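All the exercises in this workshop are built on plain-text protein records. A record pairs a protein's sequence with a compact description of its fold. The structure tokens are whole numbers drawn from a learned vocabulary of backbone shapes. Once this layout is familiar, the rest of the handout is easier to follow. An example says more than a description, so a record of this kind follows.
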Amino acid sequence: MSNGSAENQSRGLDATPSSLKTPSQSPSLPSLRSAENTPRQHNNRSKSIHTAQNRKIFDVKIAQLPLPLPRDPTQCPLFCCFYAEFDNRAGPKIVFQSPKTFMDQEIQVPAERVHKLLEGAFEEIQLKTGGNSTLEQPATNHDQGVYTSGGNSGLSIFDSCKDYIITGNELTGTVINLSSHEMHVLTRPTIIHNEAYERNSFLFSVGFVLRRSSDPRPFQPIISKWAQSLQHLEMETRFLSNLTTRPRVQSLLEQILVSLNSINQECNLAISPSCVLHLRHFQPPRTPAHPVPDYAVPVLLLRDWRQCQAFFDWDLSIDWCARHIDGVRNAKQISEKAEVDIEIVRACLRVLKHYGVIALCDMFFYSNRYETTEIAMRLLAGKEQRLLASAVEHAIAKADASQNSPEVSPSLHPAPFSPGTEGSLGSSSRTTDRERMAQSNPRTSALPHTPANEVLWSVSLSRREDFPLLKAAVADFYSLCERRRTFGETWISLVDGTLSARSLDWKRMFQILDHRRLASFGVVHGLIRRVHRFPRMVRLQNATISSTDGVGNGGTSRSQSSRPHGRATAMGNKRKPPTCSKESIGAKMDGRHCDDELVCEFQKSLAELLEIVGEPVSFILAPSR
């Protein structure tokens, strides 16, 4: 019996005396051996062996996965990834970080030093992942305490912001963004309450150090997901507090540093055979575009609308309105041409503007005023040669052999184009730039006039020879735009020689360049800025204005805005223009409505509106936003 008891104890059986056991409770030795060899226990042993083999195979395969190539250190948005804990004896400390000793650098560390640390860390990580496994790393001295500062005289990065890395219960579970000097320190403190820990709680924090010029918002969900995953692993498997598994955090931080600094900015972390974490950097959504006014002129940024249809499945209303964009018509004219309600046209153009399909410019008149920008001055200094060449290609007047051919939808890329129309709103007359300028200003009668076909034929023959001169003329013209002169007056001064500029044949340049395309290209690319005039009557008759029917504080009457949505099937459904009376026009000339808005609403030129008012009017000049 003694041998049997010893054998039973060695097999893990109950060591109850045999005198107290019933015959059914005292199995014999053959029965024990037969119980070991049951099919169920044999299957359990085979499953455990199979699971262990799969785990080893998984570790080997993950270890062989190469990391993506990081970008140049000068272009990396992520400087450092770190893991910190609250030590019950030493207090807050950095346990793991990549690059190593980064958090011990001075808070005023220069960018060159940061780039060298990143370059050294990338080389070390690539060498490490090329040979050994990244899952199993031997315990290093990173877990032995705070890194040495290396003789830094000032406060280190960790000492400067450690109060925001390991925080109290009030800030745990939230993402903290501390922007200081040339970096963003993004942390996510976490606390786990459990009686198994020394002080019934376990405090840790993960963090990123970002470049100051980078947007920290896309990294906030990444660091939150990373911290929550570590929290769940600690609660389930003691991943962080176990001395065997915690060294893996260092290799995970290195993978995050390299992957998020790559071109794809995507990271796959194989924490264990049963836990794989996917992290990816997503750009924040675009800011919604501003509402589109009725007088704004949309211009396609691609050569053809059919190219946009290949990328997006547009709404039917957007597709229909976009087919009427030609770079000349404003939103109100598109509404009339497409027979679509103006509210729908505004919404469609706003969507296209949000996705970068179109750009908005102003209605072109020779009475428009523009002012130059810093980009135009760089253009004049020869620092933007590519942009200058594109401007010349876009502004060269091109037309078909027939003047009655339909107009090609222009874009801001060099493409064949037939001169557009800029007549009065609602008019379909096809007058040329020079004819419209002569009508608007008597001084233009002295300008040279050449038939359009002859001019275009000469341009096509001497385009290569005149291209350097055209570049100089375009650069000079953009740099000479001022708010005290109109667009037409600038051309007149150049042709007459009264404006100091390069000694060029400005009469020929006047004939070659398409003036509307020259202005629209400059506005869209920021070379010139439109300066609007806000007319204001000197003597306002408040009593007459307040009694005006259908006119409010810059709005329209209820009858004008109550038209049902959708395409109009009859001419009677179209919105009628407002009455061009002295009172209605004077109500709008209060200094809050620009010249383009008045011209678009009353469908008359500003000179005609001032003639109808017949009273002194002062102008407020303000650049467009």
